[in-house]
Design a protein that fits this description.
12 helices; 9-stranded mixed beta sheet; alpha/beta; single chain; 25% strand
């Protein structure tokens, strides 16, 4: 058995041989709250946020700010924590915006993304005081202008620009290429044309530019290359349009460790290098440094999350394959089914035992693709009632969860300073049918 702390320092093993998360016994938590169960280590969330807020305060130009990309994991308590830690947020739907408002988050510190905001989305944002729209293209700028005029306001926006950067990540999360569905490309000349059009709008206030090149980025130079392309665009816009961007949003995307073979990222050191690079490029281009925005999501919450399950059945097919079935599945974690995502899996109550039983961890859904992780090693004799822990599930698990097969979604329990509390209650079967007429 490898040392769980090699994956993340909030994983330990106690004297009983139980996996502990955030200093608390996962077996005890499973007994108290039931399974499937999302655990979130609030102390780890705050620690990860402070990496960014510290960097923004100490390395980047005045007015720079980190935004929590709340699509990674959106529920009320996350917005409260972001506010307490001095972060803004980005939202991608009215549902996320409503959740933030219900948590008391100041929407003037929120940025509304999405490649296709409807007129009702835009109106909802304006009516509730959204700070910024991140506009994806001509159609959206025109719609914001029209709806802002109807409300008698001048709305702040950033333009989402596509820098043409290949960050060498998974195709499904690579968003910086010229032919991405997101943003407007520099290479085709459309981005400059969009700037000119936007500057003519009387009810739209252009504050700067946004880009996002992808997710699960480990390449040390990806953000440096992105900053270089975007700052040259800022300088070109200044020269051609007489407009100087006040804000440059470089997006998010730093990778996290799902398995031991994933690289370790020193995000603090990378941010410091990025800030120094921005200063140097601006000096070379003879332009003022814009205030920087960054939008961490996965790197804030991924390793702050762990999901607990209970084994239901063990099926051995001699000469073929072994299956360990759990009481959750693709309804609460669809990422393997979608992306083939890798995870580290432990038998949470049997951490001191040798793992020699090769099996696939599968869910309870009536779907052959309901797999959490294939070809893993668990202890011999794994059986019904054993606890299973799937690590690094704080990002894009709850936020992508569904009621497939009409299975209720798990609770979210937050761990803080040795105590625990329910942040999102467990759904019931009555909840699942509540909207039916």
């Amino acid at each position: 058995m490898t040392n769980p702390m090699d994956l993340c320092k909030n994983l330990t093993v106690n004297k009983e041989g139980h996996l502990c998360f955030g200093g608390q016994d996962t077996a005890a938590l499973a007994s108290e709250y039931g399974t499937p169960l999302y655990l979130m280590d609030e102390d780890r969330v705050r620690e990860n946020m402070r990496v960014y807020t510290h960097a923004m305060q100490n390395y980047f130009p005045a007015g720079s700010k980190a935004l929590y990309a709340s699509k990674a994991n959106s529920f009320k308590q996350m917005y409260r924590i972001a506010a307490e830690e001095g972060m803004g947020v980005d939202v991608v739907s009215c549902g996320e915006m409503y959740t933030a408002m219900q948590a008391g988050f100041d929407l003037s510190q929120a940025y509304f993304h999405s490649n296709n905001k409807t007129d009702s989305d835009i109106a909802y944002g304006i009516e509730h005081g959204i700070g910024f729209f991140v506009a994806d293209g001509t159609d959206e700028v025109d719609a914001i202008e029209r709806i802002a005029a109807q409300h008698g306001i001048r709305q702040k926006i950033l333009l989402r620009i596509t820098p043409g950067i290949d960050c060498h990540t998974y195709e499904a999360v690579n968003t910086g290429l010229v032919d991405s569905k997101f943003g407007t490309a520099i290479e085709t000349g459309q981005a400059m044309e969009l700037v000119r059009q936007t500057l003519l709008q009387p009810h739209v206030e252009l504050m700067g530019f946004h880009c996002h090149v992808g997710s699960m980025v480990f390449g040390e130079d990806v953000f440096l290359r992105t900053a270089d392309v975007m700052l040259h665009f800022v300088a070109d816009v200044n020269q051609n349009c007489g407009y100087m961007a006040q804000i440059l949003d470089l997006g998010g995307g730093y990778g996290v460790r799902y398995v031991e073979s994933d690289p370790k990222a020193d995000i603090s050191a990378s941010l410091k290098e990025l800030a120094e690079t921005i200063t140097s490029i601006c000096r070379q281009l003879n332009i003022a440094q814009p205030a920087i925005r960054m939008e961490p999501g996965r790197s804030i919450v991924a390793d702050a999350g762990l999901t607990l399950y209970t084994v239901g059945s063990v099926k051995q097919i001699p000469g073929y394959r072994n299956y360990v079935s759990i009481d959750g599945g693709m309804g609460d974690n669809p990422r393997y089914a979608l992306y083939g995502s890798k995870y580290t899996v432990y038998a949470a109550q049997r951490m001191n035992e040798e793992c020699t039983f090769t099996c696939s961890l599968v869910g309870r859904c009536c779907e052959s693709g309901d797999v959490i992780q294939p070809n893993i090693q668990l202890p011999e004799g794994i059986h019904r009632g054993d606890s299973i822990a799937v690590c690094t599930t704080g990002a894009y698990n709850y936020s992508m969860a569904s009621n497939y097969n009409r299975i209720p979604r798990p609770a979210i329990v937050m761990l803080r300073g040795g105590s625990s509390y329910v942040a999102v209650r467990r759904e019931t079967i009555a909840d699942v049918a509540a909207l039916d007429e």
